[in-house]
Design goal:
Blueprint: E1 33-35, E2 39-41, E3 54-56, E4 61-66, E5 72-77, E6 82-86, E7 90-92
Antiparallel strand pairs: 1-4, 1-7, 2-3, 4-5, 5-6
Length: 93
């Protein structure tokens, strides 16, 4: 039809969907830490055999929710993503 642009659709893979258990609602509005460098994150436990589920930008604010010692901790960002990151990639605000 004249005056209309054809829309191109792209079907996303199932891996692109955020698991329901990794969404906190409502999302935090107070934060305890900040990301100190470009930081990969994982929805589940870190596995060297697969790429990260995403990355947080340097300066992103997060709330530290779980840290039991070791290399990784669990945080929530402003979108409500409940994710695992390297503990050394966060610093107290």
């Amino acid at each position: 039809m004249k005056g209309f642009n054809e829309t191109k659709y792209k079907v996303l893979s199932e891996e692109s969907i955020v698991p329901e258990k990794n969404i906190i609602s409502p999302a935090p509005n107070q934060f305890s830490h900040q990301i100190v460098r470009l930081c990969p994150y994982y929805f589940n436990k870190y596995e060297q055999t697969r790429p990260p589920d995403g990355k947080l930008k340097k300066g992103a604010k997060v709330t530290l929710l779980v840290y039991e010692g070791g290399d990784y901790c669990r945080v929530a960002d402003k979108r409500g993503l409940y994710i695992e990151v390297l503990y050394k990639d966060i610093a107290k605000l």
